[in-house]
C-alpha cells in the first residue's frame, strides 16, 4: 500500500520532469506553464469543482475498465457502452416527461441499462460462440459509433440545428446545479463507493477478484465463472453507460456529434495507470481531469498550446506504469544486495 | 589437492529476501560422483545453477582448474566443459535423436546446409563410445523418458563437457530404469568425467556417489565419504533432526462405501481413450492410493471427478449419489480436493492468504456471509484464518500477505487446512506432497492418516511409491488409462507395483 503510493508519486514527479524537458525543447517556460496549469484546475474551490465535474466520465469509464480487467473479462467496449448509455438517457429525456425527482433517476437508470445492453451483446457472443470479448467489444465500438451518428443525423435530428444533434431533453432531466459540488460529481462518488463495496465486500466481488487472478482455482473452488463473467460484463457496461448518461444530463442536455470524445479511452488508460485499483482509478481520474481542465486555462495565459496536455498525459501513463514495475524490481534487488552483504561480512 | 572445481563462500539472495545459498564453500574432484542432497529449498539446485552460470551469485568466487571463473551464461560454462541436465527434459519432440543432439552445434556445409551425414556419424560414434544404446534416427517423441534423458546427457557429451551436473534425474524414471542410468554414470566417471548429482533420494545417493555434500536451508552441513555414512545419519543432517522412515499406519476398520467410479471412459477428441473402463471404490476410513507413471490417465481421472471434464461414459457416485452431471459447487459439498499444482489449481498466488483460505467455504458455510449471501463477513473470515493458522501452525507474516509469500510447505498447509475444514465425506488428493520438504511431507502424511481415523474416505494419487506404501491401505495401479492392479499394501512390494506401472502387468 505504502509502496504503491510512493511509486505513484515518483512516477508523477518523473513524468512532470520529462514534460518540462519537452516544453524546454520547444522553447516554453515549464515552471510558469505548470503553475498556470494547476492554478486553473486545482488552485481553489472553483477550479477544483470544475476538475471534479470533468473527471466524472473519466473516473466512471475507468472504473468500468478496472473492474473488468481485475475480474478477467477484457472489456474494451467502454466507448460503445458510453454512447449507448448517452443515447438511452437522451431518448428517455426526449419522450418521457416526469417531475425531476423521478425523471433524473429514471434517465440514470436508462443510461445504465443502455450501457449494459451493449456490453451484454459481447457477453452473449462469448457464451454462445466462444467469441473473444476482446475483439467483439472493440468491433461493437465502431457499430455503436456509427449507429448513434445515424440516429442523431436522421430520426432524432434537431431540424433547427446546423450540425447533427438531437433536440434538448426535458428540463426535469437536467442534472441540477447544487452550487459548489456538481450533482454529477455526487453520482460519480456514490458509484465509486458502491463499486468498491461490491468489489471488496460482496461475495460476488470476491468471486470476481478470484476469477480475475486465477480462473481455474476459482472454478474448482465452486465459483460459477460463466455467471460471474456475465455479471461483470453487465456491471462494467452499466458503469460506462452511466458515464454517457451523465455527460448528456450535466452538459449539453442533448446528444451532439462527438459527444463521447476520448473519455472512454482515457478511462481505460486511467485503469491501467491505477493497476485496476478502484481508489487508484478515482485518484488518477481526478489527476488526468486536472491536467485536461488546466490545459485550457494554461492556453489562455501562456503561449503554450493546450495540446501539450495530451503529450503530458501520454508521458504520465507510460512513466507511471514503468515506474511502478521498476520500483518493485529495484526495491527487491536493493534488499537482496543488502542481505547478501550482511551474510558475506 | 586435485580439486577440479572449488566454490568459495558463495552467497545468493533471491530478491527481495530469500537467502537461497548462504556462505557455501565446497569442492569437487576430477573423476568423482559427488551428490548434493538436501530438502526442497535447501539450495542445492540453486548452487548448481550458480556454478553453471544460469543464475548470478551475489558474493564469493568459483575456481575451475585453479583459475577464477564467473560464467555469465550457460554457454560459457559449456565452452569450459561444464554441462547441466535439468529436471524437466527440454528436447524438441518432433526431431530425431541426432538432430536434438547437434542442435546449436551443427556441422554445416557450404551455404549453411546441415551436413547430416557427418552429424549422424558423429552422434553414432558418441553413442557407441559411451555405450548408450540409442538409435540416432529415432524420433524423440517415440522414445521413453529414460532414453530422452540419455539424449540430454549425450547432447552435453557431444560438446565435450568433462563435468556433468544432473538435477534430480531419477525423478522422472521408473524404479526399473534407474540402475541402467547409474551404470552409465559410473562408466562416465571411470573415464574421468566429474558428475554432480542433485537428489533427495538417499538410497540412490548412497548407492551411486563417491562423496556426498549435505545442504540445509541454504547452508552446507557437511561433505562426507559415501562409504562412511548411512541413510539415517544423512537424513538427520538433511532435516536437522531424526526422521522415521517407517509408517505410523495403525490397523483401522474401514466403514461404509463412500466413493465409487463405475466404468468411466474419457475419450480425447481424436478418439484416444485416456480413461478406459475405470471402476473402483473407496470406503470410509480407508486410504486408497493410485500409482502410475505420470500421464497414464491420472490427470483425466482427477479432472473428471472434479467436473472440469465430462467423462464420455460411466459415472461417479459419492455416498450413493450420482455426481457425474452435477455442477462443481454441488460436487464440492461432497468432495475436498488438494490438487498437484498449488499455483495453478490450488490457490491464487497473487491473492491474499485470507482470500485463499475462504475459497469454497465462502459458498458452503452460511456463517461467512450475511444478507442472504450478498455480503461476505470478513470478520468471521479473519477469525477463521487465525484459527487455521493456530491449529495447523502456519508461518505467515499477516493474513493480508500475498499467498506467494508463504513457503511451499506453508502454502500446502493452508490448502490442506481449507479442504480439511470442509465437512465432506470424500477427500481427493493429487500428489499432495509434490515439491515439499521432508518435514512438510511428514506433516501432510500425518494429516492424511488422521483423516482416515476420522472415517473420511481418501483417494491419494501419487507418483511416489514410498509415499503410497507409507500411507495407503490399498494401491491401485494405472497404466494407459486402465486400472491394472488392485493390491493390498501389506501383501505387495514396491517392485511388484513398479512392474505393473511399467508393463501393465506383473512380469515376475
From TrEMBL, chain A:
CDD domains: TM_PBP1_transp_TpRbsC_like (cd06580). InterPro entries: ABC_transp_permease (IPR001851). The chain crosses the membrane at residues 5-25, 56-76, 82-100, 107-129, 135-157, 178-199, 229-251, 263-291. It is found in: Cell membrane. GO terms for cellular component: plasma membrane. GO terms for molecular function: transmembrane transporter activity. It is a multi-pass membrane protein. Its main location: membrane. Coiled coil: none annotated. Keywords: Cell membrane, Membrane, Transmembrane, Transmembrane helix. The keyword Protease does not apply. PANTHER family: ABC TRANSPORTER, PERMEASE PROTEIN, GUANOSINE ABC TRANSPORTER PERMEASE PROTEIN NUPP. This is Putative ABC transporter permease protein. It comes from uncultured spirochete.
UniProtKB/TrEMBL annotation, chain B:
Its EC number is 3.6.3.17. One of its GO terms (molecular function) is ATP binding. Keywords: ATP-binding, Hydrolase, Nucleotide-binding. Pfam families: ABC_tran. The keyword Nucleotide-binding applies. The keyword Transport does not apply. Residues 5-242, 259-505 form the ABC transporter domain. InterPro entries: AAA+_ATPase (IPR003593), ABC_carbohydrate_import_ATPase (IPR050107), ABC_transporter-like_ATP-bd (IPR003439), ABC_transporter-like_CS (IPR017871), P-loop_NTPase (IPR027417). This is Glucose import ATP-binding protein TsgD13. It comes from uncultured spirochete. The gene is tsgD.
